[in-house]
Design goal:
Elements lengths: L15 E3 L8 E3 L12 E4 L2 H7 L7 E8 L2 E8 L4 E8 L9 E5 L4 E3 L3 E4 L19 E8 L7
Parallel strand pairs: 1-8
Antiparallel strand pairs: 2-3, 3-9, 4-5, 4-7, 5-6, 6-10, 8-9
């Protein structure tokens, strides 16, 4: 979904919703011979606890920003009203990337009947996709944020 000149739309947008589809997978990947979905080939499921407690947030249009450094990845979702956000913080024992990075991304959240998937940028997807007999483990923190547009005194 670009604006016609190849630039991604970074405005708040609704999730990709398929309420008739179920999945128990913790990770969705798109093979190289298939087209990417809004530029992404890897999507990680929200934890069941976060999905059940905060999943309704993703039913509204939102913006997506992702930043990483060291052993952490922070997903920041901003509600279209600009008044509330949600952060989803993943930490692992291994380095996420050799270099810190991040940006605003086109909203590409996938909401299924029983799972919500968030996009993983190409720059760090190798930190999420396990190789043979490897298990990936993440410590997860998430919370809703009130966004106050006023500057502190």
């Amino acid at each position: 979904m670009s604006n016609g000149d190849g630039v991604q739309n970074l405005d708040a947008a609704p999730a990709i919703t398929r309420s008739d589809v179920s999945s128990a997978a913790k990770l969705l990947t798109i093979p190289a011979d298939q087209p990417a979905l809004r530029g992404f080939r890897c999507f990680i499921a929200l934890s069941e606890k976060i999905r059940s407690e905060m999943g309704d947030f993703f039913l509204q249009p939102h913006k997506t920003s992702i930043v990483w450094g060291g052993q952490k990845v922070l997903f920041i979702f901003l509600h279209h009203s600009g008044e509330v956000g949600l952060y989803y913080d993943l930490q692992t024992r291994d380095s996420i990337s050799e270099h810190a990075g991040g940006a605003a991304y086109q909203t590409s959240t996938i909401v299924l009947k029983d799972a919500i998937y968030i996009p993983v940028p190409k720059d760090i997807e190798s930190s999420f996709i396990p190789v043979a007999s490897e298990r990936k483990r993440f410590e997860i923190r998430a919370d809703l944020l009130r966004v106050d547009g006023r500057m502190p005194p």
